[in-house]
Amino acid sequence: MSSDGAPARVRLNRDRVLGAAVELADREGIDAVSMRRLAERLGVVPMALYKHVANKEQLLDGMIDAVVAGIDPPAGTGDWRQAVRARVLSARDNLLRHPWAPHVIETRTQASPIVLAHMDALIAAFLAGGLSADLTHHAMHALGSRMWGFTQEVFPTTPPPDDPALREQMFREVAARFPHIVEIATAGAHDPASAVGSTCDDQFEFEFALDLFLDGVERLHARGWTSAGRAGQSPM
Known about the structure:
Layout: H1 14-28, H2 35-42, H3 46-49, H4 56-68, H5 80-95, H6 101-107, H7 113-128, H8 133-143, H9 164-177, H10 179-185, H11 192-195, H12 202-222
Helix pairs in contact: 1-4, 5-7, 7-8, 8-12, 9-10
């Protein structure tokens, strides 16, 4: 309580500003985050925020730092493959709690020390497994956004209609125009008409691609691949 009996105002700081911004984005989406809305949420005037974040871009940078800082490092393991896999899946678990973050990550133009620390830890796991700096360099490029726990959707589709007749009609039209897409989209489906336009198991697909990537890197490492000799080396 203050001397006049009013509730004491919690002192504003950068961590509190960023935490409130992340909570707002989690609740209402990134488009809802503005300096005005954030100030209202914190019970301050907008100008008070500029002491801690200079502008909207700096706010977004800080929000990504706050999210990346939430990635739990995996338990120590002597296996480079398991260490990389565990860190990437930890990043994914963390990112799933913040569905707005992938889009914002893709718009950032500079990496902060917190972001670089996550990348450095991944690189360290490769190098600790005996992989060369050369192979690790290319592996990190191939890993891409997967290091943060997301990938771009390959087949962006809309959900099928709820009405069975309309769903069946849509299935016939799509199958006639794009038979090969339908073939793989309905593989293993009990109701092919329902499978077209439906979403896959995102977690399974993510882990499948991650394991495929790790298999390839492991194979290259085992045969001593180098970028200098790539033109004359067989992929097998």
